[in-house]
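Example (one chain per record):
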Amino acid sequence: MLLRQGQPAEVLLQEQLTLLDDGVREAVRRDHAAADRLLTQGRFLRERFGAGASEWQLPNEKG
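Predicted structure:
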């Protein structure tokens, strides 16, 4: 259905993941309690879906 509307599912998913990534980075920068909650959720997702640890590490930010 998305493809008929000119939007491949992969493109839509990538856009949504980019928005989530931006939001997570901003939350981590501003609110340490939010960062702790995100890490807790990340552990849950890793346990539930079996992603490798390297997939859940945020890159180091400079600046």
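Caption: The CA atoms of residues 34 and 40 lie 10 Å apart.
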